[in-house]
């Protein structure tokens, strides 16, 4: 365990990076020393140098080294964990197809580079949007890496749902278990209270208010990103970094015994989610691997919402297939 964990972060000079790097370096993934490999585009490298100066100035005992650059094959060389945060945001006048092509170019190249040079045990978490489809593009362009090593981040949505439910019921966040986000990390996502628990009681029953669940809880969680932009003037960053850490830590070290987490991972057809889509599910993790929690009963209300979100993912997959990205 003295060998440092090599962790790549892309988009490291961005706002999520500014929070994420310091958490990683200060030991959020454990006591094992960590080596950071930071990928940016050329024009952002100067600013990234400043962030590295600040990392140096923290004198973190767990930080074994930092390397920065714009060449994915150099930065990803031997990495055990890759956190793909950098992506192209939607600019003025940009159509959905333009956005998918711009990100497609990034995630095809990064998928190929990971395929060529990452460590055999690499795990890849995608935060950059559209996260599920970016993960699908990277996965498809990395044929030698098992598909199960790719995931997209829905942990922020999961944490938001826990926080909203805790506020509604007066419970502590630690009293809430088995939260699930289904589907796409987008406004169609489905945060599910029918399998969640508050102090061991079914959450939908504990709330006892279907109107709140439908008209308040679900849209508040699904549109939280937009509400943050409206209030803060820029998109969620520290909370996104925190969720990226939660997801990576649980993936590497395992989820709690009496609980599960939400991760967007490749479907093998579970819960009738079309095979090959990267969709959010309830998962448990152990020994660096995840497995989807099976056998949950899905009623009509939940079925319709899961189907709507996975239909959106299927549309995105069709669009990137037509663009020749996968
Ligand atoms: P910023 O625009 O602050 O930072 C993005 C960084 O990525 C920039 O520094 C840019 O130079 C870099 N970049 C662009 N192309 C790159 C490439 N090819 N290789 C390496 N770096 C590249 O965005 P930030 O607020 O940090 O958000 C990053 C991404 O996370 C965005 O796509 C954003 O939409 C997404 N989010 C995802 C969330 C989730 O829950 N999955 C929530 C938060 C966030 O909205």
TrEMBL record:
InterPro entries per UniProt: L-lactate/malate_DH, Lactate/malate_DH_C, Lactate/malate_DH_N, Lactate_DH/Glyco_Ohase_4_C, Malate_DH_AS, Malate_DH_type2, NAD(P)-bd_dom_sf
Keywords: NAD, Oxidoreductase, Tricarboxylic acid cycle
PROSITE patterns the UniProt entry points to: MDH
Enzyme class per UniProt: oxidoreductase
Domain Lactate/malate dehydrogenase N-terminal as annotated: residue spans: 6-147
Residues holding NAD(+): 11-17, 103, 110, 127-129
GO biological process, one term: malate metabolic process
Swiss-Prot/TrEMBL catalytic activity: (S)-malate + NAD(+) = oxaloacetate + NADH + H(+)
GO molecular function terms noted in the UniProt entry: L-malate dehydrogenase (NAD+) activity
Domain Lactate/malate dehydrogenase C-terminal: 154-321
EC number annotated for this UniProt entry: 1.1.1.37
Binding locations of substrate: 90, 96, 129, 160
UniProt xrefs under Pfam families: Ldh_1_C, Ldh_1_N
Residues of the active site: 185 (proton acceptor)
Family that this chain belongs to: Belongs to the LDH/MDH superfamily. MDH type 2 family.
Protein function: Catalyzes the reversible oxidation of malate to oxaloacetate.
Protein name: Malate dehydrogenase
Biological source species: Nocardioides glacieisoli
Source species taxonomy: Bacteria, Bacillati, Actinomycetota, Actinomycetes, Propionibacteriales
């Amino acid at each position: 365990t003295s060998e440092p964990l090599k962790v790549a972060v892309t988009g490291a000079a961005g706002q999520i990076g500014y929070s994420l790097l310091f958490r990683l370096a200060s030991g959020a993934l454990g006591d094992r020393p960590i080596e950071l490999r930071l990928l940016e585009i050329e024009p952002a490298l100067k600013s990234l140098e400043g962030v590295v100066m600040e990392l140096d100035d923290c004198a973190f005992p767990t930080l074994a080294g930092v390397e920065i650059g714009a060449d994915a094959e150099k930065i990803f060389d031997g990495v055990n964990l890759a956190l793909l945060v950098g992506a192209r945001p939607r600019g003025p006048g940009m159509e959905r197809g333009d956005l998918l092509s711009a990100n497609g170019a990034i995630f095809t190249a990064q998928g190929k580079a990971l395929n060529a040079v990452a460590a055999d045990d690499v795990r890849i978490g995608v935060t950059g949007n559209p996260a599920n489809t970016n993960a699908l593009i990277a996965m498809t362009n990395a044929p030698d890496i098992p598909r199960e090593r790719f995931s997209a981040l829905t942990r922020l949505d999961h944490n938001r749902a826990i926080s909203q439910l805790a506020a509604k019921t007066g419970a502590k966040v630690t009293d809430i278990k088995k939260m699930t986000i289904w589907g796409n990390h987008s406004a169609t996502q489905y945060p599910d209270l029918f399998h969640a628990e508050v102090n061991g009681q079914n959450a939908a029953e504990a709330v006892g208010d279907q109107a709140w669940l439908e008209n308040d809880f679900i849209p508040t969680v699904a549109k939280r990103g937009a509400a943050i932009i409206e209030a803060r003037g820029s998109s969620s960053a520290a909370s996104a970094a925190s969720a990226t850490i939660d997801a990576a830590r649980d993936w590497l070290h395992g989820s709690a015994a009496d609980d599960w987490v939400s991760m967007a991972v490749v479907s093998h057809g579970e819960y009738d989610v079309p095979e090959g889509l990267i969709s959010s599910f309830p998962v448990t993790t152990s020994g660096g691997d995840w497995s989807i929690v099976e056998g949950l009963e899905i009623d009509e209300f939940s079925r319709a919402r899961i189907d709507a979100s996975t239909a959106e993912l299927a549309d995105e997959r069709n669009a990137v297939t037509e663009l020749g990205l996968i």
